[in-house]
Structure formats: structure tokens, C-alpha cells
Amino acid sequence: MSGVMDDDADLKYWLAFNRITGIGRVRFGLLEKHFGALENAWLADASDLKAAGLDGRTISAIVQARPDISPDGEQEQLQRLDVRALTWHDPSYPRLLNEIADPPPVLYVRGQLAASDDMAVAVVGTRRPTAYGRQCAEELSAELARAGVTVISGLARGVDAIAHNTTLKSGGRTIAVMASGANVIYPREHLHLSNEICASGALVTEYPPGTQPRGDFFPRRNRIMSGLARGVLIIEGDLQSGAMITARLAMEQNREVLAVPGSIFSPQSRGPNSLLQDGAKLVRNVEDVLEELNLTMVPQQVEARERISATDTEVALLRYLTQEPLHVDQVCRASGLPVATVSSILAMLELKGLARQTAPMSYVRAREAQAAYGG
Question: Domain for residue 139, yes or no?
């Protein structure tokens, strides 16, 4: 990896603004809308910043911080650390993350993101797993890795570390979402683990290098974990745990929530059991996860998505699919096409991740198709 060698001359100003506390999604949007290039915003005086819609406190923060921040220095630091920065306009910015209500304006990446990371599951849980929780995390993470699914977690002790370690040992890809700068590993005992993750996956964070972890950063980073994934798998955690915060965020982001059931006598199972009572998908084995998230043929789906987009005929047939299951016979009647043709096209759409079979011979339009082809 060659660090930050981005052709976008404006990137360094994104990095500079991202250093200033209080400049998030909304204020980045205001600056872009008013100034166009963020270089213009960086050079603007207080009256121009006010005209962009910024409040007095934010304007003061920018004016006070600018003398101590070097846009060129920010870019050079990332290059030294072998960290890449992606703005939400970058084609490499994770597609699923860009769909959430509050995507990070800047995402810092150590390691490499890959096309297959679009097929990801977040595996989260308690920092103090029981023997049962440890076994569940190990077996499910290993099987997800063998199925070609990227495993996302938070680099924390307990279930997170088990998910990362097991995925790596199984030859899979894993992404760790951090609540600190990409060069600040927390907890420190996971330094070796973080290096292993970088070698075959990625560390990602919204915080600039050197940022130390804070208590309020952890709930914020959880939205990135769920935002990067198709769904979130909860393995143990009490009712007020970080895993439950991630589950709530996943629901808000229209992601699937899945949970491993546990003993009614175990405090560590209160979280997942309450999720199951509220309608989360009960997970008994990896097949439950793969089927629920339409990830049963990940390698083939990735290959198909990389090679070919939807053909005109496939796009035409997609228009007949909705979020309500339609039987193949209904699609045939609506489209006027023979059953053999419809079945073949639907199979290809499923392979490309654009349609999903919910029951034998019944299909719905996948979220990916909603975003790409409308309707």
C-alpha cells in the first residue's frame, strides 16, 4: 500500500477540517454546499463561514484551530503511517456505509478494503464471554470466513477479539472498526492482532491519527460497524451492553439483526434473548446467517458483481419485483416471458445480489437493486 497518493487536491482540506472538534456530517455538508471546494472554506474568514450556515461556536473553533493545523502536514502524516483517507465522494468509500444517515465524512483505512467486503457480517458481543459464548463466536466466525464472508468487529476484548482471531486463522478477511486514530491501538495487547488484520484486511476509523480513545467514541464507532455490514450478529451481552447499542443502530440503518440464544439464567444472554423476543433472527448455525442475509454464494456473487452489471433484460425483469415475494408464475404473467427464461434471469439476478429467493420459486428485490436501479 502506498499511503495517501490521492489526485484530489482538496483531500488535504478534508483532513484538516476533520481535525476540528464539532465538524461532522452536517457541517461538512454546509461547507461543501456553500464553498464547493473545501480549500475555499479553509481560507474563508469568519463572515464567509457564517454565510455558509455555521454557528458561532463552530466558527470560533475553526478560526482558533487553523493556525495549528497544516493540511499538507496531515496528508504527509498519513503517507508516513501508510494510512489512506477516503471522503464520502471517493469511489472506494464503502457503498453500504455511504447509505446510512450519518456516514463519516472522512474514513481512515490501514490495510486494504476489497470488493468482497460488500458481503460482510458484523460479529459483536460481550468483553467477558462465557465458555458457551466463546465457542459460538469461534465456530460462527470460522464458518463465515470459510463461506467467503468478511467479518467485521471492534477490536475489543472478548467476542470481538475472538471473531477477528478466528477469521484470520480460518483464512478469511476481517475489518476492525476503531474508536481511536488508526495508529492508536486499544487495547494495547491487541497490537499484534491489529497488524495481522492489516495484512489481510483493514483497520478503519473516522478519527485522525493520534486520537486517543474516549468513552463516547465507542458508541459512535458502533454505527460504522453496523453500517459496513449486511447484518449484525449478537453473541452474548447484557441489556445495556455495547453489543445492544450496535443492534439498535443496525435496526435504525435497516440492517438485519441476528442473535444467538442463550441461557435464561445467564446475564450475558439477556441482550440476545431480548432481541429474539423482539423479532431478531434466531441463529443456530452459520446457515441461518447466510440464508437470512442472502450470502449463501458469496464467491460467485462477488465474481458476478465484478464482471457484469445487470443487462437490459435483467433490469426490465427487476421492475416487476418488489419487497413483497412474487412467485415465478406471477412474474411470467406480468412480463409475458416464458417460465424457463424468467427462471434463468431470476437465478442470475440472485447470483448478482439483486434479487433474493424468500421461498421456493418466490423472489423479492434486494436492497442493492433498490439503490442501483430504483423502483
Answer: yes
The CB density around residue 200, as the number of other CB atoms within 10 Å, is: 15
User: Which pLDDT band holds residue 313 (cuts at 50, 70, 90)?
Assistant: confident
Residues 6+ positions from 66 with CB-CB distance below 8 Å: 16, 42
Tell me the pTM: 0.79
SS3 of residue 234 by DSSP: strand
60, exposed or middle or buried, with CB in 10 Å at 0-12, 13-18, 19+?
middle
CATH of the domain at 162: 3.40.50.450
Residue 89 in domain: no
Residue 180 φ then ψ, to 5°: -155, 180
Q: Where are the alpha helices (DSSP H) in the chain?
A: 11-18, 25-35, 38-42, 46-51, 56-65, 71-81, 95-98, 131-146, 159-169, 191-200, 217-228, 242-252, 270-277, 286-292, 298-307, 312-318, 328-335, 339-351, 367-373
- Confirm if 159 and 236 have CB atoms less than 8 A apart: yes
* pLDDT tens per residue across span 82-135: 999 999 999 899 999 999 999 999 999 999 999 889 899 999 999 999 999 999
144 in any annotated domain: yes
